[in-house]
Structures are given as structure tokens and as C-alpha cells.
């Protein structure tokens, strides 16, 4: 069982530079930005393994500290760069806590307070609107879409029909091929303040698929993707526009900056300034430990398969293969622009300090190590610029 009273560790990979921390458990040591896994299970092939990340957070570090490292990405967003922040890890290890803060079906997002535990999403919403108010000349507008990837279907959590259907209307990944088939993109709702943004997200969270398992009483059964699209009335003034003008596609949904050759984002010229994506992945799960059966077992199988597909895509990108298997799952298809494109991508790995979960922890750290090897902007998938140094 994951001890929910204990704060979880957060390990951030694939970006950022700040280093801090000293914390030790019996098998997990965190010297600076390194995670050292020591385990006395002799049969395990990966004992005494060291992983390096840009930053490692100990259990005692607050949400505010974590957001302190995320915050500069919002300045990049205002500068016109697409940004994606993605939480990955085993079920019950703190992904939703990190991204959203403590929440429940009854009280989705707790009120703001100087020492509150608010997660990245509400803090990012506050910072985004603060930056917009400081830059009135940019005339930026914000639209939000919220989808969940459940059992390999993309479900639109903002669609009106979603309120009356159990499974919600399905949407396709917003890529150029999808656009050619005239599928409907996810609903995009304008928001005018951080409060609007948070209220919209809070309403959607109540619709998100959840289940009690032996590991986590409120386990998310879907990947949640919150997208904030910044548009400007004035034509093409962002770095994105200057680097990759791309052909105009009239009447197509606005999906951020497209990379030449990428089957990804399409946008009308002069509209999109940048896109922020906040991704709270469903947790990887060992069926023997979570004890799920029936339809929950099916959900687990979809979750694990989509996470494996994500790892495959990152593996292919890191090896710079010609073919990147984005289409093996709706999750990777949906995130194609972010994974293979030139968005600023920040992956936060959430790991358990419990010895019983060491195998999952090693898997998670291995995933993070793979993410760090990806030289984005150079492999297949049609990106244009090498990863920008931070
Ligand atoms: N850093 C932390 N400090 C305090 N409590 C935490 C921390 N991280 C997680 N928790 C608590 O642990 C529990 C599980 O966390 P959370 O729901 O975020 O896990 P998860 O990784 O999203 O799980 P799943 O993938 O199953 O949805 C929650 O009750 C959460 O409030």
C-alpha cells in the first residue's frame, strides 16, 4: 500500500536546471539532482542504480517550490513558445496532487492561500493571467479545452453532451489527418481570468473517470489533458510564427504552432500565439498489487498499454528512428506535436518512497532517463528546431 499520509517524492526530468535537496529513505537516496536506488533484493537486476535529473524534490518540499521551477515556462509561453508539463508515475504517487493539488469530487480545487497546497494547474492559471495583464499590448485571449484519454478514446470533458453521457463524446487527436476527415476537435471555451480557468477545470475533474483500488482510493483511470490556447488578434508576432510560418489552413481548428513536415498542429496564420498543455497521466499499475478485476482490469490494461506506447515513442525519438509510432495509441497521437515537436516539455516523475514499490520506481526512473535522451527537434515527426537550452 502507498502510505498516503507521507508526502511523495517528485523527480523532475527533461528540463530546468535548479538543484537542491537531501532526503533519504532506506532504499532511495537523493543527493542533489541524482536519485540513487539501493535495494537488497538480490534478484533484481537494477539495484544500486543512479539516475540524474535536472532537479529532485524531496517529500518535504512544498508545491510552491515545485511551481517556482515551473513558473519560467509561463514566461516562455507569453514569448510565444508552446509548453507542455506532464506528470508521470505509478498509481498513487502524487501526479494529480502535483498537477492539480489536493482535490476531491466534493471540493475540486481548494481556495487560494499563501501556504495552500494548490498544484501546478491553478498556480499556472494565476501566473498566466498575471503575465497577460502585464502585457496588454499583446492582446492575448485564452481558450481552454479539457479532454481525458480513457480506454484509448479521447473524451471531451467540456462538450455539452458530456454532462448527460456516461462515456462522453469521442474526439480524435487534432492532427492534420484528423482535420482532413473533418472530425470535430475538442470544445474550446474562452476564459477571462484565472478563476474562470480553475472553475472550468474543477467542473471537468468531477467527470473524470476514477476508481478505488488497493493502492489508491481515488485512482484516476484516464489521462487528463488541459490545453490553454493563447490567441492574438494581431498577425504572427511570436517566435513560433517567425520560425515556422506553415501554410494557412482556413476553417481548421486552432492547435498551436505547426512544424513543417509534421502531421501535427494546424492553425490559421496570425491567430495562435502559443499553447500550454498540462497533462496528468493515469498511473502505471501492477495488477497483482492494485487488485483490480473486470472492467477495471480492462482500464488498467489500456492505461499500461498507452504508457508503454508513450515510452516507445520516446525511445524511437531518442534513437532518432525514421518512424515514430505515434499512432499506436490515442495518447501519443494526441501529444504528437508536443513529443516530436519543439514545445518546451517538462516531465515530472512522481515516485513512491516505499520499498514495496521499488520495481515500479525503477521503471519510472528509467522512463525519465529515456526522456532525457530525447534530442527533440531532430528525429522523425518533423520538428524544426533543436531543443532550446534552458
Ligand atoms: N507531495 C505530497 N504531499 C502530500 N500528500 C500527497 C503528496 N503527493 C500525493 N499525496 C497524496 O497521496 C494521495 C495520492 O496522490 P495522487 O492522487 O496525486 O496520486 P496519483 O499519482 O495521481 O494516482 P493515480 O495515478 O492512481 O490517479 C492523495 O491523497 C494525495 O493527496
TrEMBL record:
Output this protein's name.
Answer: Kinesin-like protein
In this protein, which residues make up the domain named Kinesin motor? Answer: 1-374
**Entry-linked SUPFAM superfamilies:** P-loop containing nucleoside triphosphate hydrolases
| PANTHER family (UniProt xref) | KINESIN FAMILY MEMBER 25, KINESIN-LIKE PROTEIN KLP-3
In terms of Pfam families, this protein maps to: Kinesin
Task: Identify the residues that bind ATP.
Answer: 89-96
Q: Name one GO cellular component term.
A: microtubule
Q: Which UniProt keywords apply?
A: ATP-binding, Cytoplasm, Cytoskeleton, Microtubule, Motor protein, Nucleotide-binding
In the record, biological process GO terms are:
microtubule-based movement
Native source organism of the sequence: Neomonachus schauinslandi (Hawaiian monk seal)
GO MF annotation terms: ATP binding; microtubule binding; microtubule motor activity
Query: Is ATP-binding set as a keyword in this record?
Result: yes
Task: Give the subcellular location.
Answer: Cytoplasm, Cytoskeleton
Q: Where is this region: Disordered?
A: 164-192, 233-269
Sequence similarity:
Belongs to the TRAFAC class myosin-kinesin ATPase superfamily. Kinesin family.
Q: Which Gene3D superfamilies match?
A: Kinesin motor domain (3.40.850.10)
Major subcellular site: cytoplasm
The gene name on file is KIF25
Regions of biased composition (Basic and acidic residues) lie at 164-183
Amino acid at each position: 500500500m502507498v502510505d498516503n499520509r507521507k508526502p511523495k517524492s517528485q523527480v523532475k526530468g527533461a528540463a530546468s536546471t535548479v538543484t537542491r535537496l537531501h532526503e533519504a529513505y532506506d532504499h532511495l537516496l537523493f543527493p542533489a539532482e541524482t536519485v540513487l536506488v539501493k535495494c537488497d533484493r538480490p534478484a533484481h537486476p537494477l539495484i544500486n542504480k543512479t539516475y540524474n535529473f535536472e532537479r529532485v524534490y524531496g517529500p518535504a518540499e512544498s508545491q510552491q517550490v515545485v511551481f517556482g521551477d515551473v513558473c519560467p515556462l509561463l514566461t516562455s509561453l507569453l514569448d510565444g513558445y508552446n509548453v507542455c508539463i506532464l506528470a508521470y508515475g505509478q498509481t498513487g504517487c502524487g501526479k494529480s496532487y502535483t498537477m492539480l493539488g489536493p482535490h476531491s469530487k466534493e471540493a475540486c480545487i481548494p481556495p487560494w492561500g499563501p501556504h495552500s497546497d494548490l498544484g501546478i494547474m491553478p498556480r499556472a492559471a494565476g501566473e498566466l493571467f498575471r503575465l497577460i495583464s502585464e502585457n496588454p499590448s499583446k492582446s492575448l485571449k485564452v481558450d481552454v479545452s479539457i479532454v481525458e484519454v480513457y480506454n484509448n478514446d479521447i473524451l471531451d470533458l467540456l462538450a455539452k453532451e458530456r454532462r448527460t453521457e456516461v462515456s462522453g463524446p469521442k474526439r480524435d487527436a487534432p492532427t492534420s489527418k484528423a482535420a482532413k476527415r473533418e472530425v470535430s476537435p475538442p470544445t474550446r471555451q474562452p476564459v477571462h481570468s484565472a478563476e474562470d480557468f480553475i472553475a472550468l477545470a474543477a467542473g471537468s475533474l468531477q467527470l473524470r473517470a476514477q476508481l478505488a483500488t488497493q493502492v489508491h482510493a481515488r485512482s484516476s483511470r484516464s489521462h487528463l489533458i488541459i490545453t490553454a490556447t493563447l490567441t492574438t488578434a494581431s498577425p504572427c508576432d511570436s517566435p513560433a510564427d517567425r520560425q515556422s510560418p506553415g501554410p494557412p489552413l482556413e476553417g481548421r481548428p486552432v492547435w498551436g504552432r505547426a512544424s513543417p513536415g509534421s502531421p501535427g498542429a494546424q492553425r490559421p496564420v496570425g491567430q495562435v500565439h502559443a499553447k500550454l498543455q498540462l497533462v496528468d497521466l493515469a498511473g502505471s499499475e501492477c495488477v497483482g498489487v492494485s487488485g483490480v478485476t473486470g472492467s477495471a482490469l480492462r482500464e488498467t490494461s489500456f492505461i499500461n498499454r498507452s504508457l508503454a506506447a508513450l515510452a516507445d515513442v520516446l525511445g524511437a525519438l531518442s534513437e532518432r528512428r525514421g518512424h515514430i509510432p505515434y499512432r499506436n495509441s490515442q495518447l501519443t497521437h494526441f501529444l504528437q506535436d508536443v513529443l516530436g515537436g519543439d514545445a518546451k516539455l517538462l516531465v515530472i516523475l512522481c515516485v513512491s518512497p516505499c520499498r514495496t514499490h521499488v520495481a515500479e520506481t525503477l521503471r519510472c526512473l528509467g522512463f525519465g532517463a529515456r526522456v532525457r535522451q530525447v534530442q527533440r527537434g531532430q528525429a522523425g515527426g518533423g520538428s524544426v528546431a533543436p531543443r532550446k537550452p534552458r
